[in-house]
Every structure is written in C-alpha cells, then in structure tokens.
Amino acid sequence: RLRAQRQLPPVRGKVVVTVHGLGRTRKSMARMGEYLAQEGGYTWLNFSYASTRDSIDAHAEALLQVLHDLDEAEEVHFVAHSLGNLVIRRYMHQRALLEPERRGPQLGRFVMLAPPNQGAELAVRLRDNGLFRLIFGTGGRQLAVNWDEVERRLAIPPCPFGIVAGGPGEAGLNNPLISKENDLVVTVAETRLAGAADFLVVPEWHTFIMNSPEVRQYTLRFLQHGHFLSPQARQPIRAAEPDVR
Questions:
Q1: Which residues have a Cβ under 8 Å from the Cβ of 4 and sit 6 or more positions away?
Q2: Which of the listed residues 2, 111, 142, 150 has the most CB atoms within 10 Å of its CB?
Q3: Which residue in 21, 83, 92, 25 sits closest to 61, CA to CA?
Q4: Model confidence, pTM
C-alpha cells in the first residue's frame, strides 16, 4: 500500500536485508547496512520486528510478506544478529513450503552474526528470573523453554551461509554463568551449524559485534566472494559422518 501511495519505484538489483537481534531495534544494524550499501552497492532493507512481543513464527511470516513483494529484485542476501538469524531460518523453512512461483526473489548469501543456532544456555539459566522474562518476553522464552519445538521449524539455509562468532579475545573475558568460550551471551559452540561455508571467531562481545569495522569487512567479503578471509582460510562446518560401525 505504501509503495502505491507514494509511487515508490520497485526494488531491483542485488538486495541485502539486515535483521536485528532480541531486544534491539533496526538502529542496531544501521552501521552495517550503510557500509554494505556504500561499499558493496547493495540496495539495503533494514527489517524491524517486535522481538520481545511475538513469536519467531510471527516475525518470520512478516519477513515472508516483505520479501514476497520484491518480485523485481535480482537476488536477496541476508545479514542478521543473534535472534534475527533464527527469524531468517524460520522464514526459509516457511518459504520452502510454498510453490516455486510464490517464493519471491532468488536467495543470495547469508552472514550470521553471533547466532544461537543451538539454543542459548544463558536463556535457560535465567528462564525463572522475573526481570529476564519481563525484558525479553516471548522471544527470550522461546529460547529458554521451547527450544526443541523451535529448532524443528528452522531450516538449514538452502543458500551459502557463513557464521561469525564472538569470543573472549585477548582479555580472556567470559561470562561465568555460561560454560565454555563465549561472547558474554552465546557460546561459540552454540553458534555453529552444519553446512556453513565458512566459520570465524572474532574478539568481540555479543551486543556490539555488528559494529566492528573488521566484522563489517568480513561480512561484505562473504557476501561478495563466499569467504571471510580468503579461499584458503575457509573453515566450513561439515555434517558429522554417520557411524557405520
């Protein structure tokens, strides 16, 4: 309706869609989106959703409706932070169930920043905390209580995807509430997902990983070339070999 009312031109060419994380707003992805538009020549769309007030299913449906109207775009790439990655994976699951002619534009590449691909131990630990429930609402509750149900409806992306995880870096700072190496919110292990074309750990905290100049450069390089550092330095995540013993 807005496109018709304002006589907006159709979106053409290569599009990059940025999606923010839990409890954040579209502003958190502004530096990343502006960089990709300026340095990569992409048409940038900054998707916003009420992350604490509705389910991942509902957010994915909203994303599906937005992308369905990009019928003149050449292809659509994605860059997401934290929970935003699960919204996109849920969207891809929904998209796969549609008839080919209704799926919208062709998928390009997908960069996941600090994604809770294996759930979030911190959310589980804090699920009985009233302040946590108040602040993070439905989205946080799904990670904390309903992860098994959520995970069944998340697609392995059918397009090339890479993962950038945050780590403690030189300071060696980890969240003591979480086991293993982490970015204060998500462990490095929780970000991993079989099928990734490349995987990289950077010394950045979860909340600000998308604002790192280096991470922006890695993201653009993956969108353009399918790797973060170089073809030789790629670290793909392969599915576990079946046990035939």
A1: none
A2: 111
A3: 92
A4: 0.88
Amino acid at 101: E
In terms of Cβ atoms closer than 10 Å to its own Cβ (0-12, 13-18, 19+), residue 55 is: middle
For residues 90 and 216, what is the distance between their CA atoms, to the nearest angstrom?
24
**Strand locations in the chain (E):** 13-19, 43-47, 73-81, 107-113, 161-166, 198-202
Are 225 and 162 in contact by the 8 Å Cβ rule? The answer is no
- Segment holding 123, helix H or strand E: helix 121-125
Tokens of 174: 């980890």
Tokens of 161: 């995807």
Round the CA-based radius of gyration of the chain to a whole number and report it: 18
Pairing, β 107-113 against β 73-81: parallel
CB 162 within 8 A of CB 228: yes
- Tens-binned pLDDT, residue by residue, of the chain (245 aa): 777 888 878 888 899 999 999 878 899 999 999 999 999 999 999 999 887 777 889 999 999 998 988 878 889 999 999 999 999 999 999 999 998 888 888 999 999 999 999 876 665 555 545 544 444 556 656 665 677 888 899 999 999 999 999 987 555 567 766 777 888 888 999 999 999 999 999 999 999 999 999 999 999 999 999 999 999 999 999 976 444 43
Distance CA 213, CA 199 (A): 18
Q: Are 205 and 199 in contact (CB under 8 A)?
A: no
